[in-house]
Amino acid sequence: MRSAWRNTSSFTHFSVCVCVCVCVCVCVCLGSNYAMSNGGGGAGASISTHLLDLLEEPIPGVGTYDDFHTIDWVREKCKDRERHRKINSKKKESAWEFTKSLYDAWSGWLVVTLTGLASGALAGVIDIVADWLNDLKEGVCLSAMWFNHEQCCWDSNETTFAERDKCPQWKTWAELILGQAEGPGSYIMNYFMFTFWALSFAFLAVSLVKVFAPYACGSGIPEIKTILSGFIIRGYLGKWTLMIKTITLVLAVASGLSLGKEGPLVHVACCCGNIFSYLFPKYSKNEAKKREVLSAASAAGVSVAFGAPIGGVLFSLEEVSYYFPLKTLWRSFFAALVAAFVLRSINPFGNSRLVLFYVEYHTPWYLFELFPFILLGVFGGLWGAFFIRANIAWCRRRKSTRFGKYPVLEVITVAAITAIVAFPNPYTRQNTSELIKELFTDCGPLESSQLCQYRSQMNGSQAYPAGSDAAAAPGVYSAMWQLSLALVFKIIMTIFTFGLKVPSGLFIPSMAIGAIAGRIVGIAVEQLAYYHHDWFLFREWCEVGADCITPGLYAMVGAAACLGGVTRMTVSLVVIVFELTGGLEYIVPLMAAVMTSKWVGDAFGREGIYEAHIRLNGYPFLDAKEEFTHTTLAREVMRPRRNDPPLAVLTQDDMTLAELQNIISQTSCNGFPVIVSKESQRLVGFALRRDITIAIENARRKQEGIMLNSWVYFTQHAPTLPADSPRPLKLRSILDMSPFTVTDHTPMEIVVDIFRKLGLRQCLVTHNGRLLGIITKKDILRHMAQMANQDPESIMFN
Amino acid sequence: MRSAWRNTSSFTHFSVCVCVCVCVCVCVCLGSNYAMSNGGGGAGASISTHLLDLLEEPIPGVGTYDDFHTIDWVREKCKDRERHRKINSKKKESAWEFTKSLYDAWSGWLVVTLTGLASGALAGVIDIVADWLNDLKEGVCLSAMWFNHEQCCWDSNETTFAERDKCPQWKTWAELILGQAEGPGSYIMNYFMFTFWALSFAFLAVSLVKVFAPYACGSGIPEIKTILSGFIIRGYLGKWTLMIKTITLVLAVASGLSLGKEGPLVHVACCCGNIFSYLFPKYSKNEAKKREVLSAASAAGVSVAFGAPIGGVLFSLEEVSYYFPLKTLWRSFFAALVAAFVLRSINPFGNSRLVLFYVEYHTPWYLFELFPFILLGVFGGLWGAFFIRANIAWCRRRKSTRFGKYPVLEVITVAAITAIVAFPNPYTRQNTSELIKELFTDCGPLESSQLCQYRSQMNGSQAYPAGSDAAAAPGVYSAMWQLSLALVFKIIMTIFTFGLKVPSGLFIPSMAIGAIAGRIVGIAVEQLAYYHHDWFLFREWCEVGADCITPGLYAMVGAAACLGGVTRMTVSLVVIVFELTGGLEYIVPLMAAVMTSKWVGDAFGREGIYEAHIRLNGYPFLDAKEEFTHTTLAREVMRPRRNDPPLAVLTQDDMTLAELQNIISQTSCNGFPVIVSKESQRLVGFALRRDITIAIENARRKQEGIMLNSWVYFTQHAPTLPADSPRPLKLRSILDMSPFTVTDHTPMEIVVDIFRKLGLRQCLVTHNGRLLGIITKKDILRHMAQMANQDPESIMFN
């Protein structure tokens, strides 16, 4: 690591980094300006709905969505195919049209490339700045202020390898202010400055979030899951959120709070994807296509967070995405790779690796070790279940009491407690990522960590493990104590930290907790094997003096188990951790632990932390993983219920404008079925409230003679009207002629399946061809909540 | 490799292998016996369709499928949920029921574990036996007949490393029969014996396939794709197919034909999955659930074929599977891992690796090299497009002319030509997998291959590449000639071989062609860089004497490009090859080549070889990847067409049994819509032909008084009948009360989407609530063929 940085001047890196950032910023600005000129916000701008009626004049605004509404996937995809057909039919007309069609065909690749570049560059910048800020809590580099502790001392020739942390250029605050490096005074001074900086960073972070971009708080993954499932939250992935999230993420990480930057990196990458998609009308004007870019972006985000491109793609597939066609798989993979390579060329850790905690193990594992691995899995599952309950209970308290009104105070309190408690313990004082790295790393001859103070090393023998004395020295025992305290501290603080109004990821704290537990178990097993190497369990494979247990591997397995318990990820988690080690060998322990942890966690509640937060916030998210197991039929879920007023319907050709406006103003539904006549109740189509309103306004503006007693008709030809009646209003162009219908006898499990797979917004219920009622996505969510004995009103988005 | 085998006695391996095989055989037999006792074949046995009407007595046989029919995914999934609910509601009744529910919950894991074990064991056996048979063509090991050439000479202490292929124990046929090792006589003798064995193996293989299991031929992947999409081909995955395919695969590989064992291994794994699923009623009685097991099995198949568990899962996801819920992803991963570990513990290649061609490269690649890599991609795409056209043309000729009636003769002719042409050229004589290995491997000091005869090595300098003389010696030039000839030979023979009536995979021949082309390009670039190292292109990074080009990497990129051109796989292909090398570093060249090859190939035709074969055979496969881009509406596709007779419908309560039977006998459709009355045409439900027939037979057998003039009714209550009428027949229990409907105005792109995503078999078309017609999966396929200007009648399964 040392030599890597020395060989390649830091300035080269710095300049590469700056260049990439400038490019990214320019692009982001271009993208968002374009976005603003197109109407801005989250949903696409005015789109003509050609698919509805090609012969009619398109009405501007029809086919767009309001904020906090659900998109209709089927219709969006149709719109995209229509656009594609148009471009294809035109492309032979002229060279310009051909170029346009080429640009259109390539825009998918372009947008994921840009997203990958931007995510990689931002991740690199965040890594470097967070490191520097983190070291600022301890001291400064006098020779070059912009160097962090490690870089500062690399340039010094006066230090030996063993004392590589100490060099004259690096001054702690005590040295700088008091002029002395040792003694209780300087300890207190360092303690004070540590807390001071932590509080400053935390205050800055929460203030920026509160003032400029409230959406920048949290990990963002629950909201991204909801957005990808087809919900619209304007501004959640906008440029302000991106900017503030990037800045405050760095501050929050540096403040020492028990949070990570991995989850928020996914949000940052998705912001990049959203902003770049405004450069391409194919994506900016189609909510479904835009979500393909966001899926790729979230893969890129995980790719840079963990240096695991394949894991990132699987994360996007397994955890966040809703609609994931194969084309997206391939593009996600590409985006993830581009992001990973940009990050590697920035080289933020100076070790030519993508992540801080890349490890290589050299000893195989033995069948007996599956037992402690499964124990770690049980621990992970229990921790996950406990954490989800405790954190949700705390967040609910924050939401429901007046306590939630003082976010700044809360952040500062938590940051203060964290800093004050963390400082005395070296394992909590250091950066959490570095702690994980130390715990993952196996003891080798060059390791100076307290965790590696075995007798063989104390005796000066360099040849560990061949040094044959793996008995723990006092250093290991005191490290064990400190680790246990750190474990308790992390567990408590993480519960109170996740959900604060600062960017906060959960991956790193969870992994840290698991890694600490794993390392403790690993050392325990190691000592057991050392002192009882003639036990039948160890006799076979643990020869005296041989290095048969790898405590670092236990730490890694524990980290995976805890992360699995919290998020309930499976394949993607195993692949992410597999990409950290690179050995197929260790997949089996990982799988065993992750499976156990998922099963144990699921026994206490099937939701992962992200689903729990989605439900807490009441987003309309229909989970694809959850099975619908009840036997209800469609007629029991549809509205109107038994004692409700009848469904508000429109007839196709015998209503006046006044009647129509009356119906619209008296009801709050988002759409109305259109039927042949009140008597037959046979279904013709479905019209959206928003579209009707826009069409009426448009007609009033453009057509003369539209009055309150004008007839409104949805048929192809105008009905025969009395001679004195005013000009009729034709609304066929906004009528959806192919509404989805199910019969009243359809089991709800099929209805739920249709909603999930096709991404519907509503579905009409018929009996023997007559319209009976309507089922919307929210009806389904409400019904599912009822079935699970929850208060259905508590779950809706507010 | 040598030492690995020496350390661990071959007998250990052999015994492990035998044990696993015995276990597998016992399980397979158990499984298939169970299958036979359950009615055997492919579709599940008698299932009561509780979901239709829980109050009715279930009729045996209702809800099953005929051979060559399409399953209804929605209904199968409902059936499974019903079964699950039943078990769940019962499980608290007694300890026995609780055990049963536990068994049910675990059966998914059990069946994938068994499948993984069996696939890994069979792959190991196939590898070992194929190797041995392949060497039998050259000679025998006198000291131990069951050793192949390599193992035979490892036990000999008389050979040096350089001459490790020659040892006194191993006798070529010429030595054994003529008693002389050198000279034209012995060459002719060896040539003759080589051809003789090749022909014998080929004859045996094709005869076994022809007599015992005609389904065992080909690669099986097109059929597995079709089966996974919901088609039933009884016996395609049965025990006979498994047994014969395993035996003939070994023979076909050993016969030296230009084919591989990787594709058929997927078929073998799927057979194992199918057979084991009969042990578990959850899977044997539900066609949709069984396909989850098959998806996992195909992942295990690729996992053992290439030693790439993650690649296998992605292959299953991207290439073969149709319905792939996340639960299946996790189980597929597990099956793939189990299979890989069984294969590794069998250790068929004696190198502790899963595949023969595992490689590690040590030099990085340079940006300029992307140019030859993309060239290789273009070559791969062109080869893929050419191969697909030529092979399909040849297969169509075989199908349509009488030439196809002599499969044995054809196989023997091709085998004879292959053997006769292959023998003189060392690169075609050797096993194709070994050829690929040799081409992938970089030249090192220990490589004795002709391809590595650089001047530095001729001078006796061991330190290549530091030997600084990378100029090619005559050996390399003659190797280049031989490779070029081998390339032409492989290209021609592969076209005629794929589609023969023996098990034949396409992965290895395609990879071999790409690897040869890649290696030739690689050596050319290397020599260019050597002789022109002061060109501006090479100056920067190619210092004199440095080893800046890795020809082995070119071979690997070429192999990926050619495989990509033929199969049009993307992510899974890159991941599979990535798992061969293990370095993230080389993903970018691979992606560049695979993307280019896909684009170039797609320009000539969007179908991969498997889709082309599916279409050639007329399987009803609705490809999820192909976009439906036309603007037709549902009413243009539905039957009846304009001039057709009206749709055969049943009325809900005014038909006699005679009328019903009349309608059934006069039409050939598989199901009939049930309407309220002929006048209103309002839809009530849908009844399947098979179910009606079974229900009538059942009623005749069990209920008295059912006569030809009995009234048939589908309503809840019997209609009021005249006093003298015979006992009516109630058929409500077989009526599907929730048929899928679309309106006549629905764009076909939405209809196709619904069919794909929900796995429908048919869909009814209505207009304003009245039934108009029906669209089946075959109607859609026929319409798509018409739109693509193909003869719609040629594509249907025959």
UniProtKB/TrEMBL annotation, chains A, B:
Topology class, membrane: Multi-pass membrane protein
Location in or out of the cell: Cell membrane; Early endosome membrane; Late endosome membrane; Lysosome membrane
GO molecular function: ATP binding; chloride:proton antiporter activity; voltage-gated chloride channel activity
Family annotation (Pfam families): CBS, Voltage_CLC
Keyword Ion transport among record annotations: yes
SMART domains found in the cross-reference section: CBS
Keywords: Antiport, ATP-binding, CBS domain, Cell membrane, Chloride, Endosome, Glycoprotein, Ion transport, Lysosome, Membrane, Nucleotide-binding, Repeat, Transmembrane, Transmembrane helix, Transport
Keyword Cell membrane appears in the UniProt entry: yes
PROSITE patterns: CBS
A cellular component annotation (GO) from this entry: Golgi apparatus
Transmembrane stretches, start-end: 12-36, 106-130, 194-216, 236-257, 264-281, 293-317, 366-388, 408-427, 479-500, 512-533, 553-578
CDD domains attached to this UniProt entry: CBS_pair_voltage-gated_CLC_euk_bac, ClC_3_like
Location of the CBS domain: 638-704, 735-793
Xref: InterPro entries: CBS_dom, CBS_dom_sf, Cl-channel_core, ClC, ClC3
Function comment: Strongly outwardly rectifying, electrogenic H(+)/Cl(-)exchanger which mediates the exchange of chloride ions against protons. The CLC channel family contains both chloride channels and proton-coupled anion transporters that exchange chloride or another anion for protons. The presence of conserved gating glutamate residues is typical for family members that function as antiporters.
Family membership: Belongs to the chloride channel (TC 2.A.49) family. ClC-3/CLCN3 subfamily.
Protein name: Chloride channel protein
Organism placement in taxonomy: Eukaryota, Metazoa, Chordata, Craniata, Vertebrata
Name of encoding gene: clcn3
